[in-house]
Structure formats: structure tokens, C-alpha cells
Amino acid sequence: MAKNIQQKKTQKAKTQKAAAKITDLSANTENSADQFLTTNQGLRINDNQNSLKAGERGATLLEDFILREKITHFDHERIPERIVHARGVGAHGFFQVYESMAPYTKAKFLQDPAARTPVFVRFSTVAGFRGSTDLARDVRGFAVKFYTEEGNYDLVGNNIPVFFIQDAIKFPDLIHAVKPEPHNEVPQAASAHDTFWDFISLMPESMHMIMWAMSDRAIPRSLRMMEGFGVHTFRFVNEQGKSRFVKFHWKPLLGVHSVVWDEALKISGNDPDFHRRDLYEAIDSGAFPEWEFGVQIVEEKDEHKFDFDLLDPTKLIPEELVPVKRIGKLTLDRNVDNFFAETEQVAFHPGHLVPGIDFTNDPLLQGRLFSYTDTQLSRLGSPNFHEIPINRSLAPVHNNQRDAHMRQTINQGRVSYEPNTLGGGCPFQAGKDMSGFVSYAEKIDARKVRARSPSFFDHFSQATLFFNSQSEPEQTHIINALRFELGKVETIAIRERMLFMLAQVDKTLANGVAAGLGLQVPTKINGPLNQSIPADGDPKKFQPQRAKQEVGTSAALSMANTVKDTIRTRKIAVLAADGFDNAALTVFKNALTREGAVVKIVAPRLGTLTGSEGTEVDIDFSLLTCKSVLFDAVYVPGGEQSVTALSNEADAIHFLNEAYKHCKAIAATTEGIDLLSAAFLKGDAGADVIAEEGIILSRNPPGKKVATEFINAIARHRAWGRENKAHVPA
Ligand code: HDD
Predict the structure, then answer these.
(1) Is 158 annotated in the active site?
(2) Which of 148, 238, 512, 575 meets the CB 3.0–4.6 Å disulfide criterion with 109?
(3) Which of the residues 85, 232, 257, 349 is marked catalytic?
(4) pTM surpassing 0.90?
(5) Is 85 tagged catalytic?
(6) Which residue out of 158, 159, 480, 582 is catalytically annotated?
(7) Over the stretch 447-503, which tens digit does the pLDDT of each residue have?
(8) Residue 74 CA, distance from chain mean position
(9) How far is CA 347 from CA 17, 115, 295, 344, 385, in A?
(10) How far is residue 389's CA from residue 101's CA, in Å, rounded to a whole number?
(11) How far apart are CA 327 and CA 253, in angstroms?
């Protein structure tokens, strides 16, 4: 036991040392009181307020090298933002495998459960510019850099397990279509516009991904509450050289949760940094986000056993067919010190591999393997981007690559070629013991063609599988999302073409969307067509045949089946004013914080509040500086004076109405119930506890039971039953 603890301690110290190495390089961490301001050449500066002039009122002199250096550096502070995934946020952490994966892969970081591998993770949206809102309806990037002892391994995935297109050659078209339209650069970070849906309506292969992108998955409650996927099928290769196919998953321990669309729109105005702030605050408070790493492993002999092609990135393997085996855990436990140096300069690449993991011939993946290095060259400006501290490998780098812009390494000696004798032959190939990377020796016997395999042609079956696997509220949200998106499309022919496509997925879906658009679902499509669509618009010819599906629904695809037993890190607003019931607040606050929730006092003004027993509490937010959309639940304690004051505040009433509309848990005790009545909740709450549809009321001074009911309601995330009920003015 003691040995175990000691081992763990040594391991932890090792990871910390390794992790520190990633960022301490060239870090400017001096913080002494006698630190003087200097130029970049180290020259001390006496006056940072005034430029050098010819007389006090005179012209500024060109000679002022201090001014020139400062302004020049400033003028060059920006680098090009990422062409996609520009908006993002990153954090450090570590990965630990549960048990050795040696039977499947020789990757060293997947062998020893005692070993911790440092990681850096960057989450992102895809379409928006660097300063765009976090809550855009969009796919989220989930990119993980493992700093392994065999070199850096990057798993550059998304929070959606499939993709819009099957071949990388279509990627620039997809991105041009979704980005702001080129003539007026509108709209920002939104797919709800003509060019996107024009493209999509001509790309039947995108339909499965569209189902996901229109679902609540595209508006996560938190980056800490979303899944991650490697998307493509990769290979695991073991020490014996045996290969198996593998799909990668990240499963968040807090469950998968989302906000509602109306909320997303309002959060975008109230706090465009909502996700970025949420991640930073959680890590800063010690509530470290965690994901389990999952794999679906398929034997090589089973490659063709599915009713879809494993190489097709628009398909997933239903967990009913191949279960996800959870093999390790990712923990994010350290925020960046400097956003630009770390999050902005980190460079991922699906081609950063380690021995034991390899590619497949997925044509989307193959194209990505070119794109990422290329984009770093234009964004970071030099083939030396691997020398930027956040990108450095912990494994030592030895090769004969030299020079180029901003070279940091000072290579010694006269030898920069191989073979050589003058350098003693160094550095040597690892070839002798084959400890270096060996590409999997896949047998290829083929003709060179520019074509797609017919096994990629079934574009609708898995879209239908996804739709059918959703709970009723989730299906409604997809229909509403499509009504919104297509409602913003100005060209009627595009709307109609999309309705036609949706009808290939599910008739109820298409009819539901059509009703919102005031259109009929067409039986044929007109207008310009691309090669994927037969010239006569006959739906039967879309694909050779709709493949027979082995599963009709898959529970893992619905967020209704996610983790719902914790309120850890959930944000609860307490609406209060002077005279609030302090005893009640104490009961609730203690119960909620014990479960790991974060409780904030929201009042008509800032400062402190005086409670019923004369107790003072600090106010966290005024009603002006925060809205209910920034919280997961609301509690209104009693106290006549407090409730009367709040009843006269339109913002307090609106706060409750909005929380109600967004189906959040709401609790009110004693006089607090009157505030609910002033808002939307009519009727008497005579009973001790009413826990109906996420509303918990108690006329009696609250005890543990009421608080527990509230906690259970928050853990359920949303009371969707309310959605179709009372319509409140919010
Ligand atoms: Fe990509 C960035 C994920 C297809 C080309 N991609 C990028 C990032 C993620 C993904 C998470 C942000 C990394 C970061 O945080 O810095 N991309 C994906 C996934 C795809 C995918 C999961 C499909 C399964 N991407 C894809 C294709 C191409 C690219 C088909 C080009 C042929 N992606 C890029 C890029 C980016 C990028 C242009 C922009 C910034 C960067 O690479 O470093 O190279």
C-alpha cells in the first residue's frame, strides 16, 4: 500500500516536471520587486510615458528607437487566425490508462496504468472568427495533444462522431459555404444562411451530420459536458504487428448536456465567452473536468461485416454492434498562463502519430494529413513551429533539419547530413531494433482512379437511425432548429430542396419543418443539381439502395440517456433582496455546495444584503449584470421584505420567467413562492413540497427534504415536459 502511494507520488512528480517543461521554456517568469522595464535588447527604460521630441511641444524624433521598437512590435502582434476552428480555448492536463492495452497497441502511453502522460487540449467552434460567440450552433473541435515519451500524438477530433463530407477535396467548398458570405461577410458564426444550405441541399452525404448539427449537441451547456470522437476509423497495431480497426471516444464524467436554442441566442449577447469562462473557472476552482477514453475495436477480418463502410467518415459504428470499451481517463487540471503563447500557438496535426497507432484509407483523413502542416506554415509562419514551447515534444528531437525563420535550436558541429562519418554517424536510425515508427504494411493492389466506392453511397440510413434514436423533446428541437436555419434562408428553392432531402431521412421530420416554413415537401427536386443527385430528381436513384440496418435505434445517440445523477459545477442563482430568509438560504446553500454546485447571490444592486437575522451576505451579481441564461437553476428564499422588493423588479420577474421557459429547476420557499406567482406561477402551494416538473415549492421553512428535491431536479438537467405547457412572457 505504502509502496503504491510512493509510486503514485513519484509518478505525479514526474508528470508535473514533464508538464512544467512544456511551458517553462523561454517563459518570462521573473517576478522580483527590482524588475526594470527594458527594451527587447535588455536596455533599461526611464520613461515609458513620453516619446522623444524636439522640445516639449515639438515634433517626435525618428531617432526614438524606444518608441519605434514598441510600436513596431505592436503593429505585428496579430497572426492569421485558424482558417477553421479559429475560436477556441485550451487547458493542460494528463492522461492515464486503466489497464495495459498491449494486446491491441504498442503505443507506450497506453501500456502502464501508473504512468501519467501530460496533455494539452483545445476546444473550438468551427465557423466563427476568433472573436465570435461561444454559443454558436456549430460542431465543437476536441483536439488533444499527448506529450508521450515516444513523441507527440495528436487526436484531432470533434464532439460529433461523423462528418459532412466523405472526401477531403470537398472541404474548401464546405467551409466556403458555411463561413460568412463573401460579398458582405454576413452572418458571423452561423450556418443559418443561403450559401450553407445551398451546398448542403446538394450534398446528400451530409445528411447524417446535419442531424447531429441541428440537434442539441451543437449547443453544449459546457465544453466539460460534451463527448469527443476521433471520427475516422484508425488502426491499433500491437508489438506483433497485428492490426485492428479502432474508433476513439471521449465520454465526459459529468454527462452530455446542452442549453436550449433560445438560451444560446441570449447567452451569445450576455456572455459571448460563456464556454471559455466556464472551463477556466472550473479548473481554477479545482473542479477538474474529466473524460474517459473509449475505444471500439474491430478485427481486420470483420472489416466488411457492417452495412456501411468503416472508411466512410459519415458513418458511426452503433455501440450496440461494437461496445465502447473505456480504457483510460483524461483530466484537465491547469489553465494556460498565456492565451496567445499556448492556446493560439498550439499546432495540431492528425499526422502526429506514435508507434502502435496508424491511419486507414478514409479519404477525408488522407486529405487532412496534408492540410495541417500546410496551414501551420501560413499561420505560424515557419517550419520551426514545433519549437514553440507548447508544441515541443518531450521526447528529444534529433535530425538534420536546419535553419528557417525563427530557428530556436542551436545545433552544434559541422554535420547536418546523413550518412556521415564526421559526426560519428549520428543521429542513428532506430531501424535496428525497429523501435521507431513502422507504417502498417497494408496490402494495396489497385488501379489509380478518381472515384468513390459504392459502399459509401448510403447517405440516409444512419441519419434516420440518429433521428429515430432521439427522445421526443430532442426530435422537436431538431425540427425547430431546421425551421430556424431554413427560415433564415432567403431562396425558396433551397428551402424546398432541403425539405426533399429531409424527407429521405424521415417524413415526420420533413413535414414538421415544412409546416414551420409554410411549404409542402416536394416529391421531386428542381433547380441546379450536382453529380450526387440524379438529373431527373428521382429519390430512388439517390443511392444503389438504402442498406438494411442492423439496429433501428441506438440508446447512446440520445442525450436523454446521459449521466443525470450529479449537480457538480452547476451554477445556481439565489434571487434575494434585503430582508431575505437567511436560515433558508443557509439550508439550501449548504446542501447545494456539499454536492459540488456553485451558488451565487443575485440582487437588484451590488454590495451586501442584510438578511432576516441581521446577517450580511455579499452580492455576486446585480440583475443588470447577469441573466438567468447564465445559470442552471434558481432559488427564491422567503423574507417578506425581500420578496416585495423583488416583485417590483421587472428583471427579477423576467429572470424567473426565462428560467421557467428554459425548463430549469426552480425552488421557492415560504414567501418566495409569491415571487413565482408574480411571475408565471399561479395557484396556491399549500403542500409541503411540490416537485412537479422541476418546480419545488414549500410553504414551510425549508429542511433537507426540500433541498434534496431541488438537487434531484437540477441533476435531471431540464424538465422538458414544461416546454409544451405554460407559455410565459420571456
Ligand atoms: Fe480540421 C483544424 C477537426 C476535417 C483542415 N480540425 C481543426 C481543428 C480540429 C479539427 C479540432 C482545430 C485544432 C486546434 O484546436 O488547433 N477537421 C477536424 C475533424 C475533421 C476535420 C474532426 C473531420 C473528421 N480539417 C478537416 C479536413 C481538412 C481540415 C477534411 C482539410 C482538408 N482543420 C483543417 C486545417 C485546420 C483544422 C485547415 C485549421 C487550423 C489548423 O488546422 O491547425 O488544417
Answers:
(1) yes
(2) 148
(3) 85
(4) yes
(5) yes
(6) 158
(7) 999 988 989 989 999 999 999 999 999 999 999 999 999 999 999 999 999 999 999
(8) 31
(9) 22, 25, 25, 8, 8
(10) 30
(11) 14
